[in-house]
Structures are given as C-alpha cells and as structure tokens.
Amino acid sequence: MSDYILSKTDNHVGIATLNRPEVLNALSVELMDQLIAALEGFDSDPNIRVIVLTGSERVFAAGADIADMAEASVVLMSERNNLARWKRIAAVRKPIIAAVSGFALGGGCELAMHCDMIIASESAKFGQPEINIGVMPGAGGTQRLTRAIGKFRAMELILTGRFLSARDAYDAGLVTRVVPKERFLAEALRLAHELATKPPLALKLAKEAILAADEMSLTQGLEFERRLFYSLFATEDQKEGMKAFLEKRKPRFEGR
C-alpha cells in the first residue's frame, strides 16, 4: 500500500501530511482511510495534544478523486457511502490546524474546513468548483462554507465555482491567518506548539463547545458551555492552573 499520509510527531504535536503529489493530493478512498487512521491515532495518543494537517507548498488537496466517481450510479454511490468517512474526521476531539498552501478545492476545501484553524500561505486558493463537473459539494461544503462566510458569499462561490484567494478568504472569515508561502507550515507548527502548552482537557472541551454553537440555540449553547466549564473543576489541571496563577509561575499541565 502506498503511503498517502506521512505521519510524525514533534513533542506534543502530531503532523499528518497528504502525500499523493502526482494527482495533486486527490482524496481517494485509500488516502481518506489512511488519513482517518492517522488522525484517530493522534486523537487516542495521550502524548499528542494538537494535530497539524498539511499538504505541500504547491497544493493542499485539489479535491476528490474524480476517477473514483465518473461512472458511478446513485446506487453505487449510496452503497459505497464514502462520505460517511468524513464524520470520523469531524469526531476528532483534539484541535486540528490546517496548514494550507496552493490549491484547497472541492474536497480539499471541505477537508480544511473540517479543521479548527486554517493557516494559509499567500498562494492558497479556496473553492468549491464541483458545479463545473455536474455536481455540488457533498462533504460539508454547502454547510461549513455558509457558516464561515455567510449565505451570499457562499452562494456565489458554490454556484459559480470561483476561487477565493488567501487574502479574500481571510477577509471573509474562512482562514485564521495568512503568511508568506515559505512560512505557512512553520507558522502552523508554532501555533500548534503554543496550544500544546495549554491544558489538554480544557482544549478538547473548549473545541466541543465552540463547534456546538453551530448546532444549538443561544440558550442551549450557554447551558452546554456552563456544564463543560463546571466539569473542568474535577481536573488536576484546573487546580494546577489556578495555583500557578496565584503563585505567579507557569503552570505544568498533565492532561488529568
């Protein structure tokens, strides 16, 4: 089996790199299965606190593998149910930072939007051009892009298939930060290492609460947030964090 995902660790940071350059990191079934295995492995590893997902300087991912779908029928697509794999990516509890350079199109844009923060190089291009091949986004593009940039911008981009530059994506609220191309991965890793100094349990619960904001009313969301907040008072990290604050020293969080 080809290594479509290259995985490594850097202290408390897990790094997954898309590695199918001959087809611009097209998201084949095999690549997706390897990616899910890598992300779930990092998620279950107590030494890993934050995950970085990246591609190459040239391309993050140019979309789904069209060769897998070109002759497929409704029945075959339904039986394959490949889109169900995306739920497993969304279920990863630790923060995921996407480091994006070059094209993030179709499934590549959807993959970046499954992450929790996006560091984009100045060369990055985001888009959902599925309309140009007779379909529409199917892995969350219509929902996540609309939530990120609003109905009217999302409607234009998805119905025309146009791309967003990195700067326009930042201005629209789709990406966290835009940096020079030579620094996109280094900046994502810098942010990941900063997050890795924070209490791991609080990181996971804060991510959970933020994601819940898309699904709940304000009243429900506030109640959900309150329960998670109270639950952290059962952790050793809460005691350590507040004690360190009072003693004017850096806390030592252990994820307990």
What does this structure look like?
This protein is an alpha/beta fold and 256 residues long. The chain has 2 domains: 5-195, 2-enoyl-CoA Hydratase, Chain A, domain 1 (Alpha-Beta Complex); 200-246, Lyase 2-enoyl-coa Hydratase, Chain  A, domain 2. Helix content is 44%, strand content 16%. The strands form 2 sheets. Strands 1-2-3-5-7-10 form a 6-stranded mixed beta sheet, with helices on both faces. A 4-stranded mixed beta sheet has the order 4-6-8-9. The radius of gyration is 19 Å and the shape is globular. The model has no long low-confidence stretch (mean pLDDT 94).
User: By helix and strand content, what is the structural category?
Assistant: alpha/beta
Name the average pLDDT.
94
CATH superfamily (homologous) name of the largest domain: 2-enoyl-CoA Hydratase, Chain A, domain 1
CATH architecture of the largest domain: Alpha-Beta Complex
**What is the radius of gyration computed over CA atoms, rounded to a whole number of angstroms?**
19 Å
Order of secondary-structure elements: EEHEEHHEEHEEHHEHEHHHH
Beta-sheet strand percentage?
15-25%
Sum up the structure in keywords.
2 domains, 2-enoyl-CoA Hydratase, Chain A, domain 1, alpha/beta, Lyase 2-enoyl-coa Hydratase, Chain  A, domain 2, 4-stranded mixed β-sheet, 6-stranded mixed β-sheet, 10 strands, 256 residues, 16% strand, globular
